[in-house]
């Protein structure tokens, strides 16, 4: 068996009598549980029928419908009905209740046990990781194969441990979405392009007090940064907190050993990070008033601060910054990162001039992150995020170009001819004349 301290992944594999191989090695895993949503489940049903697959563990195979589809969404209606018919035909488990996300999460969690290896479609992968199970995100072809054999070949990912520290009096209910966005941004920044090769293991004493729904939301990081998956440990404290929800054997709780070795480790410390605006105020500091902000900036160097907010909140704080005087440069006191919550907020910040003022003051403006989507949203998030990022960069370039042209026009109108501007005009004139000579027009 494995020697030395084990990571959470190592503990889960040990639970099945397997050793943890090196990253990039392929291992055959036995599957304990299957979870499938209607749309992806419909594709899996087609694969099963096409290849005449017999489901080996019908008792542990679940199709899920947590809400009634709207009349306009005919595709979803057909997918849901196909799942209902298939479950009746094969005597499979079907949870078909219009109960919404929160009770749905609790309902499923009772059927999962920490330390299991679970196959799920993209919508359910956050659920399996939140209760200490190994979440396997597979294609419809791979899932249909595993349903017939009870096993799957899996490429072992790299492992990254992310330690999270919150203030003792932090109340995460109010800022859970922004908390998740912030953590996702920091992980993606830390791992870079290698992010999709990593299994993320979140840790920290603060997680012991999270409800299962909050743990589920944290695991939504998987959908935002396209990593292999996000998994949370189940120890004695978290088990007692959620014992009515998490179905597990207290003697077989799943958490990493101290000093376990990871391919990468990082810490996100909200205790020392000040957050401005309406977001993350319970995790760091909340500077809603000018006097508080002035005292903080003038009293000492704060360090790194994040403003994750909508366009109105960002505009409000820009007005506070402007009252400090033109000599204030943010970089002297603090490294400020501004993250509009949505693409629409980002565009409004460009239109009302807030973005330009922040850039001139030395702030760093980050691209908006994707907020957790509902179960009925289907698209490639990584592609959409990249597309949005390119559009934002293009808008910034256009905005800067317009500002430069406007400044040059005003200088020309006022008779202020800068040497650089005159050289530019002269060069353009010479270039035009030379082109005309080459074409024989002069």
From TrEMBL:
Entry coiled-coil feature ranges: 382-409
Alphabetically ordered keywords of this record: Coiled coil, Iron
Keyword set includes Hydrolase: no
Domain of life from the UniProt record: Eukaryota
PANTHER family (UniProt xref): HOMOACONITASE, MITOCHONDRIAL (PTHR43822:SF2), HOMOACONITASE, MITOCHONDRIAL-RELATED (PTHR43822)
Name this protein carries in UniProt: Methanogen homoaconitase large subunit
């Amino acid at each position: 068996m494995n020697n030395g301290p084990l990571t959470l992944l190592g503990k889960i594999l040990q639970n099945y009598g397997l050793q943890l191989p090196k990253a990039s090695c392929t291992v055959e895993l036995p599957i304990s549980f299957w979870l499938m949503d209607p749309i992806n489940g419909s594709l899996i049903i087609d694969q099963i029928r096409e290849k005449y697959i017999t489901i080996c563990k019908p008792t542990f195979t679940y199709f899920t419908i947590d809400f009634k589809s709207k009349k306009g969404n005919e595709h979803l209606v057909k997918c849901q009905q196909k799942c209902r018919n298939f479950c009746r035909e094969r005597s499979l488990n079907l949870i078909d209740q219009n109960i919404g996300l929160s009770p749905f999460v609790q309902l499923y969690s009772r059927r999962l046990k920490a330390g299991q290896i679970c196959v799920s479609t993209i919508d359910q992968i956050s659920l399996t990781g939140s209760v200490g199970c190994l979440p396997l995100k597979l294609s419809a072809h791979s899932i249909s194969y595993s349903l017939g054999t009870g096993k799957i070949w899996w490429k072992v990912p790299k492992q990254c441990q992310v330690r999270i520290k919150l203030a003792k009096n932090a109340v995460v209910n109010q800022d859970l979405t922004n908390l998740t966005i912030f953590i996702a941004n920091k992980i993606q920044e830390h791992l870079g392009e290698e992010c999709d090769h990593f299994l993320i293991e979140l840790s920290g004493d603060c997680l012991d007090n999270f409800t299962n729904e909050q743990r589920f939301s944290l695991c939504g990081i998987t959908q935002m940064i396209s990593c292999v998956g996000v998994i949370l440990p189940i120890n004695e404290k978290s088990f007692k907190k959620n014992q009515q929800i998490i179905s597990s054997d207290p003697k077989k709780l799943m958490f990493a050993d101290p000093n376990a070795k990871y391919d990468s480790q990082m810490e996100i410390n909200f205790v020392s990070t000040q957050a401005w605006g309406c977001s993350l105020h319970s995790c760091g500091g909340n500077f809603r008033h000018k006097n508080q902000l002035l005292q903080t900036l003038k009293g000492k160097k704060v360090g790194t601060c994040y403003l994750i907010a909508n366009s109105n909140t960002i505009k409000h704080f820009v007005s506070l910054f402007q009252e400090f005087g033109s000599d204030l440069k943010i970089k002297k006191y603090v490294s400020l990162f501004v993250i509009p919550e949505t693409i629409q907020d980002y565009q409004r910040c460009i239109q009302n001039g807030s973005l330009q003022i922040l850039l001139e003051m030395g702030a760093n403006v980050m691209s908006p992150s994707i907020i957790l989507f509902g179960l009925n949203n289907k698209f490639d998030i990584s592609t959409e995020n990249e597309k949005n990022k390119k559009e934002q960069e293009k808008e910034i370039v256009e905005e800067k170009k317009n500002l430069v042209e406007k400044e040059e026009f005003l200088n020309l109108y006022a008779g202020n001819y800068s040497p650089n501007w005159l050289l530019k005009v002269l060069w353009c004139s010479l270039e035009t004349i030379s082109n005309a000579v080459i074409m024989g027009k002069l």
